[in-house]
Amino acid sequence: MNPASPFLEMDDVPRVQVSFDGARLSLPEGANLAAALLAAGVDVFRNTPVSGAPRGPFCMMGACFDCLVEIDGVIRQACMIEATEGLQIVKPHEAKAGNDPA
Amino acid sequence: MTRRDLVVIGAGPAGMAAAATAAELGLSVTILDEQPRAGGQIYRDVDRVAMLRGDILGTDYTDGARLTAGLRRDGVEHISGAVVWAVEEGFRVSYSRNGRGAQITADRILLATGALERPMPLPGWTLPGVMAAGAGQILLKQSGVLARNAVLAGSGPLLYLIAAQMVRAGTPPAAMVETQTRADMIRAIRHAGGALRGWRYLLKGLKMLAEITRARVPRFTGATNIAIEGAQRAEAVTFTSHGRSRRIPCQTVFLHHGVVPNAQAARSLGVSYAWNTAQACFVPTVDPWGESDVPDVFIAGDGTGVAGAKAAALAGRLAALRIAEAADRLSAPERDRQAAKLRAAMSTELAARPFLDAAYPPCAEAIAPADDTVICRCEEVTAGDIRRYAKLGCVGPNQTKAFGRPGMGPCQGRYCGLTVTALLADTNARTPDEIGYYRIRPPLKPVTLGELAALDDSTLNSAK
Amino acid sequence: METDYAIIGGGVVGLSVAWGLLSRGRTVTVIDGDDGSFRASRGNFGLVWVQSKGMNQPQYARWSQQSSSIWAEFAAELEANSGLSVPLEQKGGYDLHFSEDTLQATVDKYEVLKEKLDGDYPFEVLGHNALRKEEPHIGPKVVGAILHHQDGHANPLRLLLAMAADVRRMGGRVLDGKTVTGVSKPDGFHIDCSDGTTVRAAKVVLSAGLGAAKLGPQLGFRAPVRPQRGQVLITEKLPKMINRPSLIARQVDEGGIQIGATNEEVGLDDRVTQPGISKLAAEAVAAYPALAKAQLVRSWGALRVLSPDGLPIYQESTDMPGAYLVTCHSGITLAAAHARFLPDWIEGTNAAPDLEVFSESRFAVS
What we know:
The complex is a heterotrimer of chains A (102), B (464) and C (366). With 102 residues, chain A is mainly beta. Chain A has one helix at residues 33-39; strands at 7-9, 15-20, 23-28, 46-47, 54-55, 68-71, 74-77, 88-90. Chain A has a single domain (15-90), classed as Roll (Ubiquitin-like (UB roll)), CATH 3.10.20. Chain A is built from 1 helix and 8 strands. Chain A has a 5-stranded mixed beta sheet, covered by helices on one side. In chain A, strands 4-5 form a two-stranded antiparallel sheet. With 464 residues, chain B is of the alpha/beta class. Chain B has 3 domains: 3-116 and 260-330, FAD/NAD(P)-binding domain, CATH 3.50.50.60; 119-257, FAD/NAD(P)-binding domain (3-Layer(bba) Sandwich); 368-435, Orthogonal Bundle (Arc Repressor Mutant, subunit A), CATH 1.10.10.1100. Chain B is built from 20 helices and 23 strands. In chain B, the strands form 6 sheets. In chain B, strands 1, 2, 3, 4, 5, 6 and 20 form a 7-stranded mixed beta sheet that branches. In chain B, strands 8-16-10-11-12 form a 5-stranded parallel beta sheet. Chain B has a 3-stranded antiparallel beta sheet with strand order 13-14-15, with no helix packed on it. In chain B, β5 (92-97) and β6 (100-111) form a beta hairpin. In chain B, α1 (13-24) packs across α4, α15 crosses α16 and α15 (383-391) packs across α17 (417-428). Chain B starts with a strand and ends with a helix. Chain C has 366 residues and is α+β, with helices and mostly antiparallel strands. Chain C has helices spanning 12-23, 40-43, 58-82, 100-116, 128-134, 156-169, 212-215, 274-287, 335-340, 342-347, and strands spanning 3-8, 28-31, 47-48, 88-89, 93-97, 123-127, 144-148, 152-154, 173-175, 180-184, 189-193, 198-206, 226-237, 249-251, 256-259, 295-306, 313-316, 323-327. In chain C, strands 1, 2, 9, 10, 11, 12, 17 and 18 form an 8-stranded mixed beta sheet that branches. A 4-stranded antiparallel beta sheet of chain C has the order 14-15-13-16. Chains in contact: A-B, A-C, B-C. β1 of chain A pairs antiparallel with β9 (145-147) of chain B, so a sheet runs across the interface.
């Protein structure tokens, strides 16, 4: 149970170790990755490539593309991935301050 | 490439019921679904979850296990984790599974892609911690993840359902901020006659309200000026109710003001849509069997207009009967005989709809958002931008795409399309039908170039 | 007369001409189509391009060079007037090659053209290693490239928006959602629309893209234009990974990688096909292997407006003097020339460019 998270986890299942932006997290094995990250206290999944605004999961059903994360160089929806041992998750690239249009 | 009598897209109630019925009548059926396990959003992951927390979710959820059982029968191939990104005439369906592209062809297609939350653009709705109410339910259903301190905002029966489930799970919401007014309820009363035929739904609704009241969840009705405050994430909801401004600190906000058909695949095939005033959304043009105006393309379930899971399963069966008859596996009289019972049940299912649509209309300030509210989450386009493009001659949403990029991001307009149509209709003084909708093209969901390239059979690729 | 000029077609070509005429103080009415019209202005690749243009007609190469050379100054004025940005980058562009043979054959043709242009055709050949220094993500299958220094690319949608705004700012009247059904010239031009609107104008410019094939004959033009489908892809927004544009891929100012384009003779069918987009993806990944992990977000089909020889057509009607046909494949590249030089040709001033090679007489039946 993560006291910093606004979410509670009901199920007690074996955990796997993953990293999110360098931080080590223990998540329920096979869980929906977006749900597991929320429960682990992650709120900002990414910053947008347009303005750098923070975003997290919105629809949880693969439609909104707000829960995007980068795994193995591919930017994917966390809500469409299951948590497995050793996942290295990073925030996708974001807009730089003063976004250079060149 | 495999060829099937029928390919069903979406393993929710409509798709599961249709696949099982069609297979029973002797058709070869493949059902493609994005999720790892069958159920759709309404019965998400029901086979695994029913025993874990069926008590909290209720029999309206656990009943879904009867439908998932239908997918295990002979003649049905269920391909899970399959993200369909193109459906072309022929029919050729392209999908992505485990990072690889695959294709299947079919004589007939049934689109059972369900519904999406109606977009609810309010100030602050893009902040982390603000989610669709449906997302809150999915978190609970599939993952057993509960918001400790959530505010539910908007209107409609789903809002009460999720509140009641949260109460049962021991984490009642911090408050319910409801946009419907007493006037809406008075207007709805004229549909009460029909609603009495759908009394089971009304009774359920009353029970849920009683649960919420018993748990002392504060309810604020007729709410306006709703906004979510926060810098890096949601910190509070502010609104006005019955003349009083309020601010409720919270970390999670669940928004809801109805669901609307998910039209992406059908629109990409050229199915016509028309505006439905009662449901305040576009619905596809289909015949009583769910066949669209594109021959051999069927649509069943909430994708034809929102009617709920039970009606969706009935619609799936009806479509399957017609498909089997068209494929010469069933005589027309036999089809009609079997359909009669389904249609009677459907009529009861639909009886409460007009009452509910009138009692819980969409939130007005999310249909016509303030100028500085972001309406396209992907490209961060505001309502004011759309109004400005309308004045620069945008007669429809495809020109606004060119001018300002709404609908060009990865969600492909799913969460801004109806808003853009409504804003253009309002600014140009036209009807939604006259304004129209985004042209939807493949890929229906993003797909990597590597995966796409691997399906290329031209010389460049075969030389590798 | 309501207006000096009626411009039929409010895409980039029509708006460029309208903008140029308005700058000279003429009154202009632009008659534009609806949301579902075929619009090359919305579907194009955004190149401001010189190389490979006019291999058999040096005057087309020169016309493209003239436009490209004033594009930056034109865009700057448009930006200053409209307050809207028109992103443009002109630091050269590539023709990428997967075979030494095609590379050499192209270089040979460029050398011939360069001579005809009195040496004004600044290109260089980059071998794989030299190219890799410029484009670190280039793949091993690319043997080399021709880098042409007069090439570049723009944001064509921003251009469209800025022109739509600036034409209105200058007092241009724009009628949206119209379908022109007939044009007659009893006493000046009468342009009739399907909704009953009639526009009366002293002169008419037909810049309706593919629509000119049908309307042209009413005005005495042959207007032999045909559609050619180009499917185009665009990826998610990515950090900078492609420096200069090529016909295969370019990175747009918003970050997405745009990949083009097929050449398909399929009539008025602008749909996307899986084989079409797979072929484009394969070529892009062969050129830039890192793109294999990029997500394709959108694809579309657009219809090129092609004359039989691919060159523009600029023609005043002999049957109805005062009516001008303006049509081309490269509306973005030529936008600056259409805005700055074409009004002189239309108005017959001393500064009028010699556009005789682009007249319809070249299509005379043999």
